[in-house]
Amino acid sequence: MLVLGLETSCDETAAAVLKDGDTLLSNVINDQIGIHSKYGGIVPELAGRSHIERVHRVIEEAVKEAGAQLRDLDLIAVTMGPGLIGSLLVGLNTAKGLSYGLNTPMIGVNHLEGHLLAIFLQKKIQFPFVALIVSGGHTDLYLAANFGQYKLLGRTRDDAAGESFDKVGKMLGLPYPGGPAIERLARKGNGKAHKFPRAYLEKGSLDFSFSGLKTSVRTFLQQREQGNRITLTDEDISAGFQDAVIDVLVDKLISACKKEKISRIVVTGGVAANGALREAVRNAAQSHGFEASFPDRIFCTDNAAMIACAGYHKFVRQKSLSADFKALDAKANLPLE
What is the distance, to the nearest Å, from the Cα of residue 285 to the centroid of all Cα atoms in its chain? Predict the structure, then answer.
């Protein structure tokens, strides 16, 4: 069974071809960093226009790389939300056109389920497990009981972790995206030179909050600019900020496992590519006798392979698809649970 995955939820135009749910034949990702970097963040209108310009070329490249033709496809899986509505509409309407023209079934996929199931592109992890989805737009904890069976355990109440990385990077004058730039600086810094606040919220909560941490960094930088005897380098600030984010993420993740009595962990999403976070989760998991898994970095950031994977498993579960295209609409907010 050949599945074409299509992902345009934010600023990556991506297409992939997956065979039988576990054999990846192609995975093409066209990012827009060059477009948005001058603005220090994603401009939704420019993102949507770029998807329009690139989406057909990316699909053609993915199908060709897979050694197939469009008529060979058995299913089209496309992200329908959550994400930027203009970007989502490009992918969804492209998939509808292909489905109608080729008489090939299509299925809408939740972007978060794509991230959660990205690990299955590499190995068949056993259910149940606790998943931390941490990216520029999401910081969520889920209990995954089986394919399609997810329970929300906690989520951010304000900024996502990846969003905080980008905003702090902008404060430091670093190039967009800020996450990788902060990670590089943090390797040279001393995270203990200044301890930024950790927001653990009320006792027992598995929710996250990073807005206060972001404000603390901004205040600290303003004081440094005013010459208030603060001599910390950008490297030290980056390390201190990164440690503050990671400490909370790891603490909540381990707490979720204990609360649900589950020993398997999956960390996924763009921020899961951060080497310091991976090391901290591995160390914490090992000390508690838990098993931690991470998708390869190429499957952490937005990609279409994970959408094809999630679409395949959703198709297998449903066994039938509605032919009513109106039922498949782009949704900026689309809960996974």
Answer: 21
Taking the CB of residue 113, how many other CB atoms lie within 10 A of it?
25
Q: Write out the E strands in 20-165.
A: 23-31, 75-81, 106-110, 129-134, 139-146, 149-155
Domain boundary assignment for the chain? 2-116+300-327, 124-294
Determine the pLDDT at residue 231: 81
Mean pLDDT score of the chain, rounded to an integer? Answer: 95
Distances (CA, A) of 225 to 141, 193, 231, 258, 305: 37, 18, 10, 44, 45
- Is residue 15 within a helix (H) or strand (E), and if so which, with residue range? strand 12-19
Least trusted range by pLDDT, from 30-34, 64-68, 110-114, 139-143? 30-34
Helix (H, G, I), strand (E, B) or coil at 248: helix
Neighbours of 126 (CB within 10 A): 8
Annotate 22-42 with b (16+ C-beta within 10 A) or e (fewer): eebbbbbbbbbeeebeeebbb
According to CATH, the topology of domain 124-294 is Nucleotidyltransferase; domain 5 (3.30.420)
- Is 173 exposed, middle or buried, given 0-12, 13-18 or 19+ CB atoms closer than 10 A? exposed
Q: pTM for this one?
A: 0.95
Q: How far is it, in rounded angstroms, from Cα 257 to Cα 290? A: 9
Q: How is domain 2-116+300-327 classified at the architecture level of CATH?
A: 2-Layer Sandwich (3.30)
Q: Given this model, what pLDDT does residue 271 score?
A: 97
Q: Are 293 and 264 in contact (CB under 8 A)?
A: yes
